[in-house]
From TrEMBL:
Listed CDD domains: NAT_SF
UniProt-listed Pfam families: Acetyltransf_1 (PF00583)
Name recorded for this polypeptide: L-methionine sulfoximine/L-methionine sulfone acetyltransferase
Annotated N-acetyltransferase domain residues: 3-165
Enzyme class label: transferase
PROSITE patterns: GNAT
Provenance organism: Dyadobacter helix
MF annotations from Gene Ontology: acyltransferase activity, transferring groups other than amino-acyl groups
Keyword Transferase attached: yes
Amino acid sequence: MDLRIRNATKKDLPAILEIVNQTILTSTAIYDYEIRTLEEQTEWFERVTDNGMPIIVADQDGEVLGYGSYNTFRPKIGYQFTVEHSIYLDEKSRGMGVGGKLLGSLIQRAREQGLHTMIGGIDAANRGSIEFHKKYGFVEKGYLKEVAYKFDQWLDLVFMQLILE
């Protein structure tokens, strides 16, 4: 079985949609309440790629195990060299190194694009994700208390930063 990181195509959107909706319904990795439609996911895909930013998938024998992307951190021109990334995996693919391959590819692509900083916004209770990011050089830079509400609880958000140069 060969795991390949490649650019996502619109043909990958049903698999990406299944992963994102699974994440929305079962975790605090995404602070959305409602699952997304294929139309909404297609609009997201077009918005990100039209902005010149990558959406990548981890493909194993034609099956999408996870995806990653980054996009502009904030819309002001001064933030043009800073991006915020996201990585989501199918539940059965966690702990197999898939996330690391996706993150490594995103970091490489960001460097090749001449970007300066990559940000990750992570639910503070997700210590696994925080430790994972530390392995790739990310540093905790901000802790925002009770900024989101999901599953009948207030959630804290950790911002992590990687200087790419």
